[in-house]
Amino acid sequence: MAVIRLIVTRCWRKVGMGLGGCRKMWNRRPGWYVFGVAQICNLLHRGIAFCGTSTLRRASGAGCFVIVLSCLQPRASAGELRSIGNIFKPLSAPAESVYEVSLLALLICAAIFLVVAGLLTVAIIKFRARPGDEGKEPPQIYGSNQLELAWTVIPILIVVVLVLVTARTIADVQNQKLPGDALKVRVVGHQWWWEIHYPDHGVVSANELHIPLSARNQRRPTSLTLESADVIHSFWVPQLAGKTDVIPNRRNTMWVEPYAPGTYLGNCAEYCGVQHAKMMLRVVVESPEEFASWIAAQQAPAVEAPSVRAGRELFMKTSCVNCHRVAGTAAVGIFGPDLTRLMSRETIASGAARNTPENLRAWMRDPQTIKPGCLMPNMQLTQDEVTRIVAYLQTLK
Ligand code: CUA
Question: What is the distance between the alpha carbons of residues 331 and 338, in angstroms, rounded to a whole number?
């Protein structure tokens, strides 16, 4: 008994290690992972095809297809930084309306698909060629007024219903009257990051938008004004609202009203250049009290830590200050994110990496390794300079 248990435990551990290795492989090189699984399936399928019956062969082919497809499913562990919210799980008023309309459109399309595919299947089976058929063309029928009327009028009615429902939803969302005390936020899209202003509070941040939680009986919506500093971007946090384009020389508006606390992940949804995919956005929805204390912390005057004086002086002497701002210092640049409260953010590089000392060091040494093509150049700093500047940045809380 003890021997069997030992063998089972050992085997189980091996399986666990194998699965762990697969998961790591999937996280680091998803393309190679799928390729590997596809090759293993292919070999198995060939083996079965060589010695099995035709039914077994078909079943193994279908099985391989399903396994490869299942590998393409997004995994939660495939880097929490990148997984954006589920469009079928709306948690804010505008997203709920969008979801309802999309569900109606999907249902109508599914019904049309079932009717068309069903009729096609019946026709294919019932009127298939049989042994002994004459090789002639079947009788051709033209001009049935009833049929032609039916397939013209029914689609027109369906399209009219979809247009009316969509137009009504768009009007509802766009004409929504927000309470006068709704939080106002101004978002500016840049290649490839988001500048965030709270004009009523004098707070400037980047890439991580903090907003208060709403309740169904007590609305606390956030009104967003969207601008662009360069090219067209698109502001999209799927669980909060639909996409809104962020266009140069134009001011677009939208609003969100989230009903559940938590961090919502979004992404720029309009191709805007080489790092478009890493122009991510985090929206932190917190209780009104937590939001108020976050705002208060952002407004508090910066504390100058004497221990990092060397790093601060070096930072102020390099061209960092031409692009970045640190409130109350000589750094007043506006091309890059405001660094006054850098350490209050979970990520750096617009969500491309976690905000850890190691990642900050890597970013300072060469931003191109984390975000190839990004507009922050390699500053050619020495190891010692990087250490001193990172020590200073870590005091910007
Ligand atoms: Cu900004 Cu895509």
Answer: 9
Q: Per the structure block, which two tokens stand in for 370? A: 């984390």
77/353 Cα distance (integer angstroms): 15
Ligand 1 pocket check for 278: Cβ under 6 Å: no
Q: Whose CA is nearest to atom 1 of ligand 1?
A: 233
- What is the 298 CA–ligand 1 centroid distance (Å)? 27
Non-local CB neighbours of 314 within 8 Å, separated by 6+ positions: 385, 388, 389, 392
Instruction: Give how far Cα 154 sits from Cα of 12, 130, 158, 208, Å.
Output: 59, 35, 6, 47
Residue 29 in this model has a pLDDT that exceeds 50: yes
Write out pLDDT tens, residues 79-134. Answer: 466 677 788 899 999 999 999 999 999 999 999 999 999 999 999 999 888 888 88
Task: Tell me how crowded residue 360 is: count the other CB atoms within 10 A of its CB.
Answer: 22
CA distances from 115 to 112, 146, 159, 319, 338 (A): 5, 18, 17, 65, 56
What's the pLDDT tens digit per position in 142-173? Answer: 888 998 999 899 999 999 999 999 999 999 99
Rounded to an integer, what is the distance from CA 45 to the centroid of its chain? 36
How many C-alpha atoms does 106 have within 13 Å on its Cβ side? Answer: 7
Among 77, 241, 89, residue whose Cα is nearest residue 169 = 241
Question: 347-348 and 353-354: which strand pairing?
Answer: antiparallel
